[in-house]
Amino acid sequence: MHVLVLLLLIVECWSWGNINVVIDDKGGYNITIGRRVWLRSFRTAIYVDNKWYSSDDNTLPLTDISYTSGFDPNLGDYRDFQLNYDLVRDGIHTKIVGHIRDWYRAFGISFHLDTGDRPLTNTVPLDMDHVCTVFPSFHIEQIDQNDQRGYFTFEGGMSGNDGKHAGWWNSSSKVIQSGMQSGPVVLFNLTEQGEGDMLVLSPFSQFMATSLSQTKSNILEFGVMGSMLSIPANYIHSMMVFYALNGINEGIREWGQIMQSEYTRTNQHRLSDVTINYLGYYTDNGGYYYYNTEKEINYEETMVNVRHQISLPFRYMQFDSWWYYKGMGNGVSQWTARPDIFPDGLQAVHRRLENISLAAHNRYWAYDTVYKQNYSFVLDESNNKALPIGNDLFWIDLFTQAHD
Ligand SMILES: *[C@@H]1O[C@H](CO)[C@@H](O)[C@H](O)[C@H]1NC(C)=O
Ligand SMILES: *[C@@H]1O[C@H](CO)[C@@H](O)[C@H](O)[C@H]1NC(C)=O
Ligand SMILES: *[C@@H]1O[C@H](CO)[C@@H](O)[C@H](O)[C@H]1NC(C)=O
Ligand SMILES: *[C@@H]1O[C@H](CO)[C@@H](O)[C@H](O)[C@H]1NC(C)=O
Ligand SMILES: *[C@@H]1O[C@H](CO)[C@@H](O)[C@H](O)[C@H]1NC(C)=O
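Above: query sequence and 2-acetamido-2-deoxy-beta-D-glucopyranose SMILES. Below: predicted holo structure tokens.
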């Protein structure tokens, strides 16, 4: 009997793991690793009808906390705690539910906000660097003198490479500089030199509509971007606090695997990509032929010379942003070869290069892109960019036309 009890205890420890969430009766929640608090909650809030409703001043009161369990086909079992709030606008009650999910496989705790069965609208939007729903939110703080933690995050252009930064995790840290530009945040134990416990704070759904923001009082808030004027009825967004125990690099890989599992993605395309598996000849920024040709000859002749005179077994050639037409803000207006670059056209150059594979650069679409004549684009006057929407046909046609 004693053995059985002991076994059950061990199983319990193994299964739900080292990361835990502790919830109090006021709806406060702490994320702990081992016995240490890593994240302490602040408030739950909604901006609707141009005003804030928040749990911290009781304009968004917590009615009760409930508990269920559930099963996700990709990630398995979880326990689900529900913080139930009562949003009252002009006498109409809307139930807002903050779900906290503790996953059996112990890779983390996720937070899901269900904004209720009515659309939430504003006429005066917030800034796009802020959020108009807040759940979860956490203090950026040093918990006590023994707490030596650091963070690392991606931010800005080039997939977050341009503005990536790291520092101490305490109340004077500027972790998120701009919600629009920010990416996932990695938190780690500096005493273990980043080789032990770590967390990744990242969106878990609605990736294009949600954001992290940091307030003046150093609260990290997650939610819908502030510039959005309305949130549809029955909308749910979520954030993952992912946990791993073998350091930053391994942890980020494991986080990626969880994200891939949840969205049933594999590495199949990446693993068969010519540009990742073989040697290529690059004309990218830093390369000799980046916006530069041999003296007195054009790009076509220069590339043919490279192909014939460099005796390395490269399997593809990369043409950087010099080869196509640009429009407003240096975006792409038309993704075809310019006559001053390849006078005979891309296909003829390809023949002269003995049909070697080409990696052809593209970047954001310019506001004045020619493709907006025939396909739907969202046009952004503030940054002179254009985004193709809602039609795969644009991409199919583009690649069909570029295909040899
Ligand atoms: C969260 O952690 C703080 C600091 O350790 C503590 O004061 C508070 O009571 C904890 N709250 C919960 C819900 O455990
Ligand atoms: C960081 O690691 C050290 C050494 O293992 C440990 O004593 C400390 O409690 C850890 N800090 C946190 C915040 O987990
Ligand atoms: C945060 O950490 C930095 C680096 O150790 C230190 O200079 C700063 O005083 C700390 N801020 C607070 C509020 O502890
Ligand atoms: C390149 O491809 C074209 C079209 O498929 C073919 O006719 C030609 O023989 C190929 N050239 C070489 C060198 O393989
Ligand atoms: C738009 O479609 C017309 C009719 O098919 C075609 O002639 C024209 O080249 C297309 N324009 C672009 C930029 O693709």
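Residues 17-265 form a domain with the Beta-galactosidase; Chain A, domain 5 fold (CATH 2.70.98).
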